[in-house]
Every structure is written in structure tokens, then in C-alpha cells.
Amino acid sequence: MESRKLAFLGLGVMGYPMAGHLARAGHSVTVYNRTAARAAKWLADAGAGGKNASVPTPASAVSGSSIVMMCVGNDDDVRAVALGPDGALAAMKPGAILVDHTTASATVAREVHQAAAARGIGFLDAPVSGGQAGAENGKLTIMVGGDAATFATAEPVLATYAKAVTLMGGPGAGQLTKMVNQICIAGLVQALSEGLNFAARAGLEVEKVLDVIGKGAAQSWQMDNRGKTMAADKFDFGFAVDWMRKDLSICMGEARVNGAQLPVTALVDQFYARIQAVGGARWDTSSLIRLLR
Questions:
Q1: Of 178, 208, 228, 246, catalytic
Q2: What's the pLDDT score for residue 2?
Q3: Catalytic: 5?
């Protein structure tokens, strides 16, 4: 793939390694992060080499970039970084593409898409799944909403840090698909917690149970990647409870609009609130099992 001039806005636990993959692929990457020290560290890790740079504002980061990726915190952050007076759209040229990897609402995705279209700029809402490990290993799953032609242009670049990049539909479809992902995970982690707690109380060897049922219909990514750490009561890593509650709030807000019923999701959200209350806001989402012990 030919080298491109790119920008990446937001260098959190996901954005930092994602931007690194772009730089290692030979692209010229300009980064922006709200905390300048984090951007400086990224630049030191990536190497300036005359190609990569760190700048103080989103607008200065995107100047001259053909594709701009962003991965920030929530809807308000998306609006500030994309739509603010010193935001990305204020400085991007017609024909460029803005890709938002933030897990946010479908509403804000459509809002930014409309603002970008008015400037002749392409926009894709493209939340990711795979966690920090997926970002670091370049094995994310990216679910995308937007125009087919815009997707076709951006997809080879996004594939730099993904194992799968799929266009799900028009603006907002990527975010809606990520909501389905989080809804499914919430119920699954609670069920896995109950099963492992049951196994322990029944006097079974939990790791042996995981090995056996992991070869059958109960197998899942959560079981494969979190089962043993749940059994060992280790949660100081992974996707934080705070982030999951933010995501589930988005899911339940959308459900109130489309009429979907989410009784299990709502219940698990309250279980996560209890985890926060006992100091587990930054624990991995698999910490639900703590409430059963």
C-alpha cells in the first residue's frame, strides 16, 4: 500500500497502538492528544524520522491529511474534536475522510456525517472490538457505517490494525452494531461469572471445567480470554468497568428510541454499578464474578 499522510486524534489505550501500526506501515502520521505528554511519548516510540509529528490541536494535526482517524471518549469528546472551532472538520480539505473509532451514539455519528458532507468530506463511524490486546496486535474487528465509496477508500488503511473491517450500512450502522456487541458481552460475562462461581462452590476444578466446556457449545472469546483470570480473581487489566457502563448507557438510550427490550443488559449494568461502588471502576469487565464471591 502506498504511503499516505494521515492523522490520528486521541492516543488512549486503543488509539496509541493503532496509530503505531500506521507509522510502522510506512505512513506519515501526525498525532494529537489532549494530554501533550502522551503524544510526545508516542512520537518517541514511533520515531519522528521526518515523517511523524505531534501537534497541539486537532485542526493542526489534520492539515493535508487524506484520512484522519480519531478515537476519543464519548459523544461530547467526538463533538469537540470533530466539530469544535479548532476541530478536525474545520481544517480538513474536501475529498479527505474522517474515521471515528470512538464507541459513541448513532446520533452523534449521523450528526458528524452530516457536518462532514456539507464540507465535501467523507465520514465513517467505525467503532472497534478486540480490546487493548487486539489494538496492540493489530487484530481488531471494525464495524463501519457510511458510504460505500468512502469505505472502499479507507478500508486498506483501517486494515493495518484489523483482522476484519466490515461495512454494516449507512451512517450510524457501525455504532449500532457495536451496541449489539456490548449487549451480547454483558449477558455473556454475567453468565460466565455465575457458571464459574457455581463450579467452585460445587467443588469442581474450575480450570479443568473451563478446558472441558471450552471445547463445546459454551465456548466464547470471554471464556477463552477471561475464564482463567476470573478463576484467579485477577482484574487489574483489560476493558474497564467505567467504559462498559458508558457503552451500556448508549445501548439503553438507543433501545428507548427503537423499542428494543434489554432486561438483562439493564440488570448487568446495575451489577457494574455495584462494582464501581466497591472501587472497581478500572477493573476489567470480567470482575462481575466478585459480586458472587
A1: 178
A2: 84
A3: no
